[in-house]
Amino acid sequence: MTSLSAPETRDPPDPPRNLWRIVGPGIVAAGVGISSGEFILWPFIASQVGLVFLWAAVLGILTQLYLNMEIERYTLATGETALTGFNRSWKHWGLVFAVLVYVGNLWPGWALSSATLDVLKSTYFRESEVTESRIYFWPVWGLVAIGCGIIVIGLTQPMVLLVISACVGGTMMFLYSGLLIKLNRTFLPDAIKVRSFRLAVLVWSIVFFGVLAGLTVWQQAARFL
Predict the structure, then answer these.
(1) In the chain, N or C terminus with fewer CB closer than 10 Å?
(2) CB 196: neighbour CB atoms within 10 A?
(3) Global pTM?
(4) 81 Cβ contact list (under 8 Å, min separation 6)
């Protein structure tokens, strides 16, 4: 457990009257990032083996839709990110997801999410003078350095990076699904607790992403061992 105060639930604020005022780089990056793996990975697979596996892309996108809705529901009800909620059960979840996000974002190269960095700041650097901008600086430029290194060594197999990203992404979704069940059933009020169809979707997400990530890791490990 952590020293975080108990989450509070309250009514959400009124929606903005002018949506254009909230559109910025963060909105654009988040929109592009959602299901970006499916838009990159599955067209490549289809170009190699045909449309036989296209059904998996559809299932992945639909499953992530409901997964993201549960994340949004918790944030709207409590005003904090799901990662902060995960830290209420074990304070190192933020670090675990930070490492996974970093490895998974080596391709296509998206920066670490501000939510992940916020959790690291509140968990490990709460009493420190180190700012969140400074925490953000080193991971981002680390990604740039690694990307430059990949170009310099002449890596001509981007599929390797895509497979790494897919394995890490599947593992993250597997963990997220299980943690969201505990989080939403523990801290959300009864009226919006996860149950029935929503609970079934999260259980399906655990099975779906767990099996896909496990099979991918097993197949790739067999190739190199």
Answers:
(1) C
(2) 7
(3) 0.75
(4) 75, 115, 118, 119
